[in-house]
Inverse folding.
């Protein structure tokens, strides 16, 4: 296998893994742009290595199957780390599934099937974007408007964003202004009532929150 072909596989893995990662990053998911690129590149490199061993060292073709199985198993553990449980609700399944899909994408690229890899990537992005919009519009979401008064701490905005990320809530129209020794924050988001209640509970546990109003 020529070095140019190996380089092509890695570049394609970066490009396709990055496209999926951009969607995850835009959706404020824990495993975002760089994570998906690294998973895709690593999977492509492992499959490329297995191919090189078979072609150059006279290895058993079963090496390819074992390498693919090893990668999928390893990424399974990585995906499990993105799943968390809070108050009886499991979250992060889509993120874990996406990492597993990206690992499979890397294996397809590493095996040299470039056109199927591009089609695979396109279908994955369509699934995440299109069906995500359908889910938001028809299956589960209500709109909530929050107005907060919090102590003027430099980390309050960071704490709010981390809480939203933890509960899978995407904050919209976020504004903040200072009034004396306090910050006034306003934002909206769409979610199920169960997820909104979990976010609400987590918000009330923040020590710096002084007042909370929900429309």
């Amino acid at each position: 296998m020529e070095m140019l072909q190996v380089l092509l596989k890695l570049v394609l893995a970066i490009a396709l893994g990055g496209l999926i990662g951009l969607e995850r990053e835009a959706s404020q998911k824990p495993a975002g742009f760089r994570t998906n690129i690294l998973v895709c590149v690593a999977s492509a490199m492992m499959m490329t290595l297995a191919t090189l061993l078979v072609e150059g060292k006279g290895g058993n073709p079963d090496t390819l199957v074992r390498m693919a199985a090893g990668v999928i198993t390893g990424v399974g553990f990585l995906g499990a780390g993105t799943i968390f449980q809070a108050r009886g609700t499991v979250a992060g399944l889509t993120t874990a599934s996406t990492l597993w899909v990206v690992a499979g994408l890397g294996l397809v690229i590493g095996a040299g099937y470039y056109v199927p890899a591009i089609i695979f990537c396109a279908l994955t992005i369509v699934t995440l974007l299109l069906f995500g919009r359908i889910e938001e519009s028809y299956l589960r979401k209500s709109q909530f408007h929050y107005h907060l008064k919090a102590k003027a701490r430099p980390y309050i905005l960071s704490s709010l964003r981390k809480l939203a990320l933890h509960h899978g809530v995407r904050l919209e129209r976020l504004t903040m202004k200072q009034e004396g020794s306090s910050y006034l924050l306003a934002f909206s988001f769409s979610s199920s009532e169960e997820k909104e209640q979990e976010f609400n509970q987590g918000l009330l546990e923040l020590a710096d929150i002084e007042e909370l109003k929900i429309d």
Summary: The domain at 142-214 is CATH 3.30.70.260 (Alpha-Beta Plaits). Residues 114-140 form the longest helix (27 residues). The helical segments are 3-26, 33-56, 62-80, 93-110, 114-140, 156-166, 193-204.
